[in-house]
Every structure is written in structure tokens, then in C-alpha cells.
Design brief:
Blueprint lengths: L24 H4 L15 H39 L4 H14 L5 H7 L3 H26 L2
């Protein structure tokens, strides 16, 4: 009988066949390629070209949005001048516009920012200022 903790007279049994033993990751991958090394790998040149194309498309969309906002601002200015407001009312409206919508040189801001996110946030801000101007004009005309 074998007592636990006492050395056995029989030699230790070593499993040489590896029955039921799971192979390690390095043994599984011997002779196999990873996705990043095979034909499914992404080519860095293709990825770079895709990013360049996306940036070009984004620049085009930003330019279109900028043109839309600029045209709306011009239409707003034309509308405010065409309305038959008195000189005092027109001056009051212009003062309120100046207070609510600072920064008339948007082109300078647009040229200083290079990040698309900054340009988009500027366009959003311009659009919000245009909404405020429309609201002010509406309130003054339809009091």
C-alpha cells in the first residue's frame, strides 16, 4: 500500500502520447498564417488611399454646407433690408444682430482651422446664429 507523501517504489508514469492534451497556441499555429499575414490582411497602401478619399469627400461636403449657410445669411440680410422697417427699427435690429452674432469674418476663422471637426462646429454655430437672427426678425415684424 502506498501512503500519501511517501515515495513510491514504482517509477513515475510519463504520458508520452499526449492523450487528451490540448495543444498550446504556439503549437496550433505552427505552419499556419495569421489573418494579418495572409491574403485577408489589409494593405496599408489601400487603407491610406481610402482615408485620403474619405477626407476629400468630407472637404466637399464641408464646402457645400458652408455655401448653404453663407447663402442663407445673404438671403437673411436681403430680407431684412427689403422689409419696410423704419430707420430706428432697422438700426435696433442691426444692433441686436451684432450682439447676438459676433464675428462677421467667418472666412478668417474657416481658413485658420484645419481640423474638419472644428470647421463643422463653426458651421453649426453659424447656423445657430442665423436661426437667432430669423427669430429676432420675426419678432420685430410680427409684434
Amino acid at each position: 500500500m502506498d501512503n500519501h507523501g511517501m515515495p513510491s517504489s514504482k517509477p513515475a508514469k510519463i504520458n508520452k502520447k499526449r492523450d487528451g492534451h490540448l495543444l498550446g497556441r504556439s503549437q496550433q499555429l505552427k505552419g499556419k498564417k495569421r489573418k494579418s499575414e495572409g491574403e485577408l490582411a489589409k494593405d496599408p497602401k489601400k487603407m491610406k488611399e481610402g482615408l485620403k478619399q474619405d477626407l476629400k469627400n468630407l472637404d466637399k461636403e464641408i464646402a457645400q454646407l458652408s455655401n448653404i449657410v453663407e447663402n442663407q445669411e445673404k438671403l437673411m440680410d436681403d430680407l431684412s433690408h427689403q422689409l419696410e422697417l423704419g430707420y430706428e427699427e432697422l438700426e435696433e435690429l442691426n444692433e441686436k444682430f451684432a450682439i447676438l452674432c459676433p464675428g462677421p469674418s467667418w472666412d478668417v476663422y474657416m481658413s485658420e482651422t484645419e481640423e474638419p471637426v472644428d470647421i463643422i462646429s463653426l458651421l453649426k454655430y453659424r447656423s445657430q446664429m442665423l436661426d437667432r437672427r430669423i427669430q429676432l426678425l420675426y419678432e420685430m415684424v410680427f409684434k
